[in-house]
Amino acid sequence: MSEINNVGGRVADGAKLPVPSYVCVRAHVCGQTGSLAPSATQPTGDDAAIVLALDLGSTMGWALSFSGQAMSGTESFKLGRFEGGGMRYLRFVRWLDDLMRFTGPISTVYFEEVRRHKGVDAAHAYGGFMAQLTAWCERHAVPYQGVPVGTIKKFATGKGNANKDAMIEAAKRWGHAPADDNEADALAVLHWAIAQEAKP
Prior knowledge:
Elements: H1 2-5, E1 11-16, E2 51-55, E3 59-66, E4 69-76, H2 87-103, E5 108-113, H3 120-139, E6 144-148, H4 149-157, H5 164-173, H6 181-198
């Protein structure tokens, strides 16, 4: 949660999203003028909404829409030396709860939908994260949607089989400075989601 608790430095300079007017202003989030939002609960319109995008995995990329800008980062859910296999999922759910306490009600969750994994362990971990995420969304009545990897890659780069470096470069072209490909993927999912929601 370090990135979330110190969001002032996680809003990419100039990385403005083409979002509808329903986005919400929150405390500690720099707005278009660079100043802090005056209230933690003050919406900019009647239908305030926050979109969360995730690249599910042990090193999870995440991105949020805030007041027309993107906030993003990564969160590690790798198992500690003395942790049981389920602890990563408990920490993930706690992270989601903390995130929603910080942002307020989340409008929609989008996640990168992976159909094929190179290894069994990665497939098991992904399935666990997706199960926890969808159950959490159902519990909090948050709509959710998986977006195929190829769709995201093609949207970001023009190629459905783009590699990690190409996805990072795409995020940079949008004005972001992703720490790794996980954050870049989450940002691509967010931009795709915003583009879809902006359609009439």
